[in-house]
């Protein structure tokens, strides 16, 4: 049940994104820092096909585009002007479909304006993209049915909703078994004090609604998801003295996580897997998350949870999975990850990544716009 305070926050955010912001450069803080990962060529080409106005009105930074997308049905939470949706519509192909939902009517109008333009550019006979004006915590009200999507993405939108658990519950409902939520967002190093949580500009700048990072695992488990898998993380720096004083000792990171909804199956054992290199743009290696990179034809020993994900998700066709507890004959490279080496803390990962921030290749996996992105 939404509280009066929730309704007030929603109104403030709608005003901020619908009236205050006109382009990415209008943000007042370096609120989200993109994670540095190379963008595959086919994704760069898809982005180049997006209409200029759609790109200019897009307030995200970097991309939230996972792998293995052909023929998938994808839902974009907080789709804005539709840039990611239009890029994804090319990647899923005519047999796939992309739906964008956003609470800012002006943004949805911009997105809808260019459907025919993009379908003609892609050579599609019928539109494979739809835009809905609605709320990401109320997907049922927007007409989105149970178990209807393979993937849900979100780029710095969940933090703008006060009730994060309701968003995750709705995402879990609309995902098919084996589906995933692949999303970037802002996380805080501690429970936010009232002064930050009630600051209108900090809400609009993606900081006032940031979740304490440890709470994500708690919410995911409560809803039914597998434990969150950390993909990328970078520290956020605020270059505004007044806002720095409000924030105080609290630190923030921009982090990408993936959450899987798996069918209820029996227990699995850790085993060995081999990636076959069949995913477009990732033929030589697949960086699955911060802990697992699968190189083509290399034997990798994975834990029980990773086995369950690879077996029961869209990635199953791209892996040879050995029998429970048994090993492949070793004739080449072999990798095994110790439990103590697993990284789950985005602040720890951001610390490791900080020294590499100056690398100049294009980025994947960030969220809200910064002065670096326009």
TrEMBL record:
Catalytic reactions of this protein = arsenic triglutathione + 2 [thioredoxin]-dithiol + 2 S-adenosyl-L-methionine + H2O = dimethylarsinous acid + 2 [thioredoxin]-disulfide + 3 glutathione + 2 S-adenosyl-L-homocysteine + 2 H(+); arsenic triglutathione + [thioredoxin]-dithiol + S-adenosyl-L-methionine + 2 H2O = methylarsonous acid + [thioredoxin]-disulfide + 3 glutathione + S-adenosyl-L-homocysteine + H(+); arsenic triglutathione + 3 [thioredoxin]-dithiol + 3 S-adenosyl-L-methionine = trimethylarsine + 3 [thioredoxin]-disulfide + 3 glutathione + 3 S-adenosyl-L-homocysteine + 3 H(+)
- Which residue spans traverse the membrane? none
Record GO terms (molecular function)? arsenite methyltransferase activity
Q: Name one GO biological process term.
A: methylation
Q: Residue ranges of the Methyltransferase domain? A: 71-217
Protein origin, superkingdom: Eukaryota
SUPFAM superfamilies tied to this protein: S-adenosyl-L-methionine-dependent methyltransferases
User: Record keywords: Transferase included?
Assistant: yes
> Gene Ontology cellular component?
cytosol
Q: Keywords on this record?
A: S-adenosyl-L-methionine, Transferase
Q: Which InterPro entries match?
A: Arsenite_MeTrfase-like (IPR026669), Methyltranfer_dom (IPR025714), SAM-dependent_MTases_sf (IPR029063)
The EC number(s) given in the record are 2.1.1.137
Q: Which family does it belong to?
A: Belongs to the methyltransferase superfamily. Arsenite methyltransferase family.
Protein name stated in the entry: Arsenite methyltransferase
Q: Which organism is it from?
A: Bos indicus x Bos taurus
Origin organism lineage: Eukaryota, Metazoa, Chordata, Craniata, Vertebrata
């Amino acid at each position: 049940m939404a509280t009066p305070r929730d309704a007030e926050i929603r109104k403030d955010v709608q005003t901020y994104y619908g009236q205050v912001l006109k382009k990415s450069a209008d943000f007042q803080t370096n609120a989200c820092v993109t994670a540095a990962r190379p963008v595959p060529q086919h994704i760069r080409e898809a982005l180049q096909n997006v209409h200029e106005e759609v790109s200019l009105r897009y307030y995200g930074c970097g991309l939230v585009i996972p792998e293995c997308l052909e023929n998938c049905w994808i839902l974009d939470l907080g789709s804005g002007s539709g840039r990611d949706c239009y890029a994804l519509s090319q990647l899923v192909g005519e047999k796939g479909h992309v739906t964008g939902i956003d609470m800012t009517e002006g943004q949805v109008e911009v997105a809808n304006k260019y459907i025919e333009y993009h379908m003609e550019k892609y050579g599609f006979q019928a539109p494979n993209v739809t835009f809905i004006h609605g709320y990401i915590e109320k997907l049922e009200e927007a007409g989105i049915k149970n178990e209807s999507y393979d993937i849900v993405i979100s780029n710095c939108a969940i933090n703008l909703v006060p009730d994060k658990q309701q968003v995750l519950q709705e995402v879990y409902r609309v995902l098919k078994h084996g589906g995933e939520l692949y999303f970037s967002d802002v996380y805080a190093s501690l429970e936010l004090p009232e002064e930050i949580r009630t600051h209108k500009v900090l809400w609009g700048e993606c900081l006032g609604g940031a979740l304490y990072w440890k709470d994500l695992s708690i919410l995911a488990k409560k809803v039914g998801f597998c434990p969150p898998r950390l993909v990328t993380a970078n520290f956020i720096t605020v270059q505004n003295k007044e806002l720095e004083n409000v924030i105080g000792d609290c630190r923030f990171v921009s982090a990408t996580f993936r959450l899987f909804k798996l069918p209820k199956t029996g227990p699995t054992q850790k085993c060995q897997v081999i990636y076959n290199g069949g995913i477009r743009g990732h033929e030589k290696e697949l960086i699955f998350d911060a802990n697992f990179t699968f190189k083509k034809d290399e034997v990798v020993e994975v834990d029980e949870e990773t086995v369950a994900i690879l077996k029961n998700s869209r990635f199953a066709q791209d892996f040879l999975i050995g029998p429970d507890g048994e090993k492949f004959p070793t004739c080449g490279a072999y990798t095994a990850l110790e439990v103590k080496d697993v990284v789950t803390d985005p602040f720890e990962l951001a610390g490791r990544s900080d020294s590499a921030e100056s690398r100049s290749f294009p980025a994947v996996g960030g969220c809200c716009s910064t002065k670096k992105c326009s």
